[in-house]
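Hello, quick one for you while I still have it in my head. Could you read through the record and tell me how the tokens relate to the sequence? No rush at all, and the record is pasted right below.
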Amino acid sequence: MLGADALEAAEPRVRKGAQAYRTISEVAEELNVPQHVLRFWEGKFPQLKPLKRGGGRRYYRPEDIALLRRIAGLLYSQGYTIKGVQRLLSDDAGTPAPDMPGQGVDGAMAALEAVAAELRDLLKRR
């Protein structure tokens, strides 16, 4: 009988497109954040509204994931507190949107930091 690790190695995961909705487990793995933290953030940041389907299953849109990346970058990389990120995001709501939604300088930095963290994690696995 094969274990879960052997099954994953035998059947590589299919990569979803950039516009595909993702489950909480996929987002948690992508951002290297526990699922309970994502649920906690939903309560703290009203801008974060994943779709909820039957049984309370969450599906995150690309814009939700971009916001989560930004939140994670601000909290973990830039040292903001939850209250500080809440203020920053509420202040951003009153400013005109940049050319790319969710990709102001802070959003781009958070995305780059998330990619760097993912690359570090991949290097550790080698």
Notes: The beta strands are 22-23, 51-52, 58-60. Residues 42 and 48 are 6 Å apart (CA to CA).
